[in-house]
């Protein structure tokens, strides 16, 4: 089962990623100024996952990716995949596990490893 992982960007805004059961990032959200906005959007996505649209693209370098749309609004962007089959497997994992995935909050940890 995958997980939603909340963290901070270098500009102190919040983001979350959806990771696969193998630990790879499937998609990354947009930025949020406040952490509770990030948490609310995760919960909204989990409730409304059936209405999500996945717009598939191919980059100029030949890699495949998707934009996740929720209620017609850009919600997140996937990582780049080497084949369209791998892209579809990423989408399938979101649909299968997204609504039951746990939320992990690493936004308060500045340093994971101590000196």
TrEMBL record:
<dbReference type="InterPro" id="IPR036913">
    <property type="entry name" value="YegP-like_sf"/>
</dbReference>
<protein>
    <submittedName>
        <fullName>DUF1508 domain-containing protein</fullName>
    </submittedName>
</protein>
